[in-house]
Amino acid sequence: xxxxxxxxxxxxxxxxxxxxxxxxxxxxxxxxxxxxxxxxxxxxxxxxxxxxxxxxxxxxxxxxxxxxxxxxxxxxxxxxxxxxxxxxxxxxxxxxxxxxxxxxxxxxxxxxxxxxxxxxxxxxxxxxxxxxxxxxxxxxxxxxxxxxxxxxxxxxxxxxxxxxxxxxxxxxxxxxxxxxxxxxxxxxxxxxxxxxxxxxxxxxxxxxxxxxxxxxxxxxxxxxxxxxxxxxxxxxxxxxxxxxxxxxxxxxxxxxxxxxxxxxxxxxxxxxxxxxxxxxxxxxxxxxxxxxxxxxxxxxxxxxxxxxxxxxxxxxxxxxxxxx
Length: 324
Hints:
Distance between the termini: 35 Å
Shape: globular
CATH class of the largest domain: Alpha Beta
Largest sheet: 6 strands, parallel
Radius of gyration: 19 Å
Number of strands: 12
Strand order of the largest sheet: 3-2-1-4-5-6
């Protein structure tokens, strides 16, 4: 249920800045765009600002081209905004914009484990399958209309954060939320086309580069893959083209957990962790300053690729044993 304090803060706002975590995923982008349309329907002015670009997978979503990207704030910030809504971001630091946002009134809407309720006005519900579902509930609490475009964005959020209704957070509530969005006008063919039939050629070539690095460990239960700057250059891909690529090696029969190492700088790696069932990767990510969900989480690591592989294979092996 939407806390009245959160609903009241949004009712009273006139110009709202919306943001999410760095390296935004489908739940982040879909929720941001959906909320912006909901608030616009209530006569409020909105702007979306993310540190990192929209992944190519989500570039077709309505309004994606309006998202401000980078360290430079959008026009009118900060004085022209009376509220910041931070979506799907367990700590303000994960936005990468925490320095700029410090001192701003914040509403924090999230479903991640480990969110401490920062911002003063927080709605954190770890049972929710996606923040996109929470945005739909917020719209209902505000008496706002969800149009077809907003419903499509929120359905993208739900589909991607449940792994196409395959992950452990795919509860009956997830299907009920999907049904509500369809009744509100969401177009499943449109959403499916965006997510599964619009891959840039560069992203497919990057997938080939990634799969060439595949290694299995711990009796085949753990898989590792990596992406370097050179691989992006050879494939002609951008960072956003790597969104979702981890799902292909994750599907290998017998693999219980997988880690993708993406090079950020020399000896600096973004770590993406995925698992099945009771294998908890969120706890691993948390110990390295990151976070996420039981079956999908991320963090960063400083060191060589070999050191990163040794570290996270050992961590995943222990998690696999603990889950048996």
